[in-house]
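Q: For a teaching session next week I want to show students how multiple molecules come together into a single three-dimensional assembly. I've collected the sequence lines for a complex. Could you give me the predicted structure tokens for the whole thing so I can convert them for display?
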Amino acid sequence: MSIRFSDQLIAVLPRLRRFARGLAGSAADADDLVQAACERALARQHQFQEGTRFDSWMFRIVQTIWIDQIRARGVRKEDGDVAEERLGSDEPVRRVEARLALDEVRRAVDRLPPDQRTALLLVTVDGLSYKEAADVANVPVGTIMSRLARARIALQLQLEAGGGMRRSS
Amino acid sequence: MQKRSDDRLIAYLDGELEMAERREIEAWLDTDPAAREKLAALAESANLVRLAFDEVMHEPLPDRLIAAARGETVSPEPGAQVLPFERRPGKGRAPATRRWWIGLPVAASLFGLLLGGGVAYLSVAKLAPGGIGGKQPAVEMAAADNVWLDNAAGYFKLFVSAGDGAMIDVPATGDSREALQKISQSLPQEVRLPDLKPWGLNFRGARLVVAEGRPAAQLVYTTDNKAIGPLTLIIGSSKEPDVLPALARRQDVNLLYWRHQGRSYALVGQSDVGYLWGIANDVAWQLDAI
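A: Of course. Below is the structure for the complete assembly, covering every listed component.
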């Protein structure tokens, strides 16, 4: 195993964990996902092309494994399901602690359809450009733009409904 | 259902629009208070999402993930990835758990004298007790030549036992860059300061020490969070080849060390190794040291 390869992998672990946490929801599932991604990356390190972005390659592996997992479990939602849910409506009206608000944000993200969630995590959380996110998700830039917009609007509506975000006056 | 304008507004917020489109959006925002309100709300929700997942970045990396990234399997025993105390000559002999760092004050004093006399180097190897014998795990092999890690842990223990600020040559009062400049004057290479505030670690000052037989900077960070700090980061120069980050342990002190392009690094503390990995990653990225 290449030392350089392993170094790169360890260096990107915190970001992979954050990405996986957003995808998988729970910390344990997220770390299982990252571990599986590490194992797959090491097994396929010969497929990584020098000169391309290592982080994007790893994000793609994480995302691919996650999609495989949710397909296997049959829990994938179709885009648009979220808009019909009354998300956050069962949450307490008052929310004064920041932690609770952030928990609500995480739950709201968790309720987004997988494609939208991926776009949101790659662009809004990790700061990838639309082009980079499109490369990770293996879709055109316009698709990322559209998924991201749907995710952002849905998220905002959910947070406003749940009180996790102050309404603009 | 979102409108076409939502796509563009979000793309504007993300800095993804060309100049002409940006101007178009800005003209729209100038004249439409509702659009401005929507933009502010989108920016706020984006910040909330970032905040919601940011804390993951500051969690200690689980041992099993570090092992997975290295292609290793992790032992179920807690802390199994931390290296044992360096083995001393003599089969089955218990390691000297107390004495190994007692010589450090002498080392520090000698180093001060040598600096005053204009002598650049000091052989740290002489300070290290004994060699290392027996077959060692792969990760420990990396530590075999690094007797300076004994000293790195010793400097840390000295700082902790001496009390707050007592073992700092150049305190970080006011502008921390000044402390770095002063320390750098006595070193072969300028030292840059990693910002570890996201970990709750505050830079307290720096001290001249010895690493791999050369003068080095010991950067001292403290925090109220006893699970993380205090921590010291030693940055020295080295002519040895690069080594990947590896863990070592001296008594109750954990060390994460690596070499990169002529510099040696050792992050030293009593915190969980997962935290050390996370912080070392941060240091490496900030200093282009990986």
